[in-house]
Design a protein that fits this description.
3 domains; alpha+beta; Nuclear Transport Factor 2, Chain: A; 24 strands; Glucose Permease (Domain IIA); 6 helices; ten-stranded antiparallel sheet; single chain
Length: about 400
C-alpha cells in the first residue's frame, strides 16, 4: 500500500516538473525548436565557406582577380573563350561589385565567382565540378513612398530639400512634358506624388515609376495617374485622357529660354534687327536635344547662313521642326531616318552665328514658322471603355491618398 502511494507521488512530481519546464521559457526547454537559418549568397549556402566581397579596381581584369584565389590560367582562358554567350569578360567594369566564395583553408581557393553586371543582374561561375557559367537576377522589392513640396527656386532643389530622389524631377518632366512648360515654373508652384522605390536586399537601388501625381502650376491642378491597358502603361488625367500629346513642350531638359519668337530681334552677332522665328534655349554644350514628335529626318547638314549644324524633321503633312547650332549629331541621324518622339537628335553647341551654346528651335505649320511655345496639339488615345471602371477605381484610390 505504502509502495503504491510512493509510486503515484513520484509520477505526479515528474509530470509537474516536466509541465513546468515545458511552459517556462527560462527553463532551457521551449515549445518551438531552435532553427538556425542558413546564410545564403546568390542562392548558395555559405555557412561553411569564406566569402569575399570586393569592387573591381582601375585597370583590373578578371585574370587579376581570379589568380589571387587559386584559379589557374587555363581555367581563366576557358572562361574568356567559351562562356562569351553567357557574359563577355571584357565587359567587366571598374566600380562594379564582385563576390568570391572560397573554401575555409588558409590558402583561399575560389569555389564560386559572381560578378554584378548591374544592381539587378549577375553572372556566376561555378568551379566546384566542371566549370558552369550562368546569369541570374536578384529579387527586387518594391516599396511605395510619397513626396510633396513647393517650388521656391527649382523643382530639383525642392525635391532634394524634401528628402526625395533627385531623379523625381526627371520623372515629373517626362510625365508632364506635354502639358507643362518646365522652363516656366513659378515660385509657389507645388507638387505631390505617390511613387515606387526599388530595393535589393534592403538597400535602395533606384527610383521606380510614379503611380500618381498632382502638379499645381498656373493656378491649375494637373493630375496624372499611371494605368495599363492592352499591355502597355501610360499616364492619364482624372477624366481618362492621355497626358501624352503629339508634340513635346520642349526639345531638351533643364535650360532657360534666352530669346523668344520675334519678327524683329536685334541679332547678338550681326547687331542688326531681323526676324527670329524660333525659340533659343540656352544650355551647356553637349546637352542632349530630342525630337519633339514622331517623324522623318528630311535635312541634315551645316547651314552657312548662320544656323550651323542643323537637323530638320517632318512630322506629318502639316508640321515640321528644325534644331540648329548643334555641336554634333546623334549616332544614326541621316536623311530618311524615321524617329520616335523623344529620340536623340544631337547635342547643344554654338556652331554658326552664336555668341554661346544654345539651341535654336523652330516649328513650322504648312511651311510657315509659328511660335513653338504656342503650339497646341491633340491628346493621344484615352482610356478605353472596357477599362473605364477599373481606371475610375484607381483614380479614386490615389486621389484620396494625395488629398
Amino acid at each position: 500500500m505504502i509502495k503504491n502511494v510512493f509510486i503515484v507521488l513520484l509520477i505526479t512530481l515528474i509530470t509537474y516538473s516536466c509541465d513546468s519546464n515545458f511552459n517556462n521559457p527560462d527553463s532551457g526547454l521551449s515549445d518551438q525548436p531552435n532553427i538556425n537559418i542558413p546564410k545564403t549568397e546568390y542562392g548558395i549556402v555559405v555557412d561553411s565557406f569564406h566569402v569575399v566581397k570586393e569592387t573591381v579596381k582601375k585597370n583590373e581584369f578578371l585574370s587579376d582577380i581570379l589568380l589571387r584565389y587559386g584559379v589557374n590560367y587555363s581555367t581563366i582562358d576557358f572562361i574568356a573563350r567559351h562562356t562569351k554567350d553567357t557574359f563577355d569578360v571584357r565587359k567587366i567594369r571598374r566600380g562594379n561589385n564582385y563576390t568570391v566564395i572560397c573554401n575555409n583553408d588558409s590558402a583561399l581557393k575560389a569555389l564560386f565567382f559572381i560578378y554584378d553586371i548591374n544592381p539587378y543582374r549577375y553572372v556566376l561561375y561555378d568551379f566546384t565540378d566542371s566549370l558552369i557559367a550562368y546569369k541570374g537576377e536578384k529579387e527586387v522589392e518594391i516599396r511605395t513612398d510619397t513626396i510633396s513640396g513647393k517650388i521656391s527656386s527649382s523643382l530639383w532643389n525642392s525635391i532634394v530639400e524634401a528628402g526625395g530622389d533627385p531623379n523625381l524631377a526627371n520623372e515629373f518632366s517626362e510625365i508632364y512634358a506635354w502639358t507643362i512648360d518646365f522652363f516656366g515654373l513659378q515660385k509657389g508652384d507645388s507638387y505631390e506624388a505617390i511613387y515606387e522605390q526599388q530595393f535589393i536586399e534592403g538597400e535602395y537601388i533606384e527610383l521606380g515609376k510614379i503611380i500618381a501625381a498632382k502638379f499645381h502650376h498656373g493656378k491649375t491642378d494637373r493630375l496624372a495617374f499611371y494605368f495599363e491597358q492592352n499591355g502597355s502603361g501610360d499616364y492619364f488625367d482624372d477624366k481618362g485622357k492621355s497626358l501624352q500629346r503629339t508634340f513635346l513642350k520642349a526639345p531638351l531638359r533643364y535650360s532657360r529660354i534666352s530669346s523668344g519668337f520675334s519678327n524683329s530681334r536685334m541679332h547678338p552677332v550681326l547687331k542688326i534687327r531681323r526676324p527670329h522665328h524660333g525659340v533659343d534655349y540656352a544650355a551647356p554644350t553637349g546637352t542632349p536635344v530630342y525630337t519633339v514628335g514622331d517623324g522623318k529626318v528630311i535635312k541634315k547638314g551645316y547651314q552657312k547662313r548662320g544656323g550651323g549644324n542643323y537637323v530638320k524633321i517632318k512630322h506629318n503633312g502639316t508640321y515640321s521642326t528644325t534644331y540648329m547650332h548643334l555641336k554634333g549629331f546623334a549616332k544614326g541621324i541621316v536623311v530618311g531616318k524615321q524617329l520616335k518622339q523623344g529620340d536623340l537628335v544631337g547635342y547643344v553647341g554654338s556652331t554658326g552665328l552664336a555668341t554661346g551654346p544654345h539651341l535654336d528651335f523652330r516649328f513650322y505649320r504648312n511651311g510657315k514658322a509659328i511660335n513653338p511655345l504656342k503650339v497646341e496639339s491633340p491628346p493621344s488615345k484615352p482610356i478605353e471603355a472596357d477599362y473605364q471602371i477599373r481606371f475610375d477605381s484607381v483614380v479614386n484610390q490615389y486621389r484620396g491618398l494625395m488629398n
